[in-house]
Specification:
The chain is about 40% helix and about 20% strand. The chain contains twelve helices and 13 strands. Helix 4 runs parallel beside helix 5, helix 6 packs across helix 12 (about 370-380) and helix 10 (about 295-320) packs parallel to helix 11.
């Protein structure tokens, strides 16, 4: 084969990969959207799409109705073939294991959850995770023969989700190993709050926004940053650890080794203790949220003050990172203006208040499934999960 022909084939492959990568990270797109994203000419793009449809790598669907008031022919879109593979995302939270199942075409097939025993060891947690996946497979008709990979969201610092299994944090490596043995696929691992940020950017409140600060306010406090459309991990896997910003260097010790951390002041246990000190004893975070929704004055006062603390930390973060949007997730995010207004006020007044820029502060869209969905988004964005036999061939 001549060198010019080789060069043309390599160029064609680059163009094909550009189309596949955009469909993998964004889901269904019209041809016009793909032309804008890839920079390919109409003739080149249409030829690539035609070949990929014939080979079964992608399928054509009809998008939303075009025109005002829903009139007009639905716009044609293309997406990865849903039969190309299934992906499973798991989150091991402090009190639950959560699962989400999707295909490589961005379609969410199922979500589910199971409680974790408070005193359960790693083996018990691993078996619950396996049982949850098996239950979803049984009840939702998921085909494990098409399973490409499993993503796992965990609490704490993860140096690199692409490292060999032996370098997964020791606390979680038995669980990752158990999943690999049970399902025979690779397990990718990352921090659960970072994964929730990626999920909100893929399906939720930060969809198509390239610069995002995400905070998860729950039993603990965590975060995730997306800058230039890429998830930021930092040099040591600790990017987004908002809960461990120190508000008081002389404050109470934190499990991270610091003192006076934000998580120790506004995390779930701290909020429960503050409410109890005001005469309102509540058994858990869910009951705290319900009391706030019922507008119990003492509870609302505690949460509003905590949201002010969170807002001040986020204002500092916004100054440094200059995002387009701040997304608040976790159980406390459902409380609307009670938590959003103090955060918005702090960001507006403390983060370059004379700047003409606009930074939205919004609640997340994905609820408790965000991190499990983010474990899937991790693979859609950063892992080569498209089945090889469905990739287009050249020559």
């Amino acid at each position: 084969m001549s060198r010019p022909a080789d060069a043309l084939q390599r160029l064609r492959r680059v163009h094909e990969e550009a189309v596949l990568d955009n469909l993998r990270t964004s889901g269904a797109l019209s041809r016009a959207e793909l032309m804008a994203r890839t920079g390919l000419s109409r003739t080149t793009l249409f030829a690539i799409i035609s070949d990929m449809i014939e080979q079964g790598a992608i399928v054509e669907t009809r998008g939303p109705e075009a025109g005002p008031r829903g009139r007009g022919r639905p716009a044609a879109q293309v997406r990865l073939n849903p039969e190309a593979g299934q992906l499973i995302g798991l989150e091991l939270a402090r009190q639950q294991v959560r699962v989400a199942v999707a295909n490589v075409s961005h379609q969410i097939v199922a979500t589910d959850a199971m409680d974790l025993p408070r005193d359960g060891d790693l083996d018990a947690q691993a078996e619950i995770a396996v049982s949850l996946v098996r239950r979803v497979v049984r009840e939702r008709g998921v085909r494990l023969s098409a399973l490409e990979a499993i993503g796992l969201g965990i609490v704490g610092v993860v140096d690199d989700p692409d490292v060999p299994l032996g370098l997964v944090p020791a606390r979680y490596s038995p669980i990752a190993a158990r999943l690999e043995r049970e399902f025979g696929v690779r397990v990718a691992v990352d921090n659960n709050a970072r994964l929730a940020a990626l999920a909100e950017r893929t399906w939720g409140a930060a969809r198509s926004v390239d610069n995002v600060v995400y905070v998860r306010w729950s039993v603990g406090v965590g975060g995730g940053y997306i800058l230039g459309g890429r998830l930021v991990r930092g040099a040591h896997g600790a990017a987004g650890e908002l809960g461990h910003v120190s508000l008081d260097p002389d404050g109470p010790p934190c499990h991270c080794g610091g003192r006076g951390c934000l998580e120790g002041r506004i995390g779930g246990p701290a909020l429960l203790d503050a409410c109890a000190a005001r005469g309102v004893a509540l058994p858990g975070l869910a009951e705290l949220v319900t009391a706030a929704q019922d507008r119990v004055p003492e509870v609302c006062q505690v949460i509003s003050a905590a949201a002010g603390d969170l807002g001040r930390v986020l204002a500092d973060t916004v100054v440094q990172l200059d995002p387009e949007r701040v997304v608040l997730g976790g159980e406390l995010s459902v409380l609307g203006s009670l938590v959003l207004d103090p955060v918005r006020g702090a960001v507006a007044s403390l983060s370059l208040p004379n700047s003409p820029r606009r930074i939205d502060v919004v609640p997340g869209d994905l609820g408790s499934s965000a991190s499990a969905l983010g474990a899937i988004a991790l693979m859609l964005h950063e892992e080569p999960v498209i089945a090889e036999h469905l990739r287009p061939t050249v020559g």
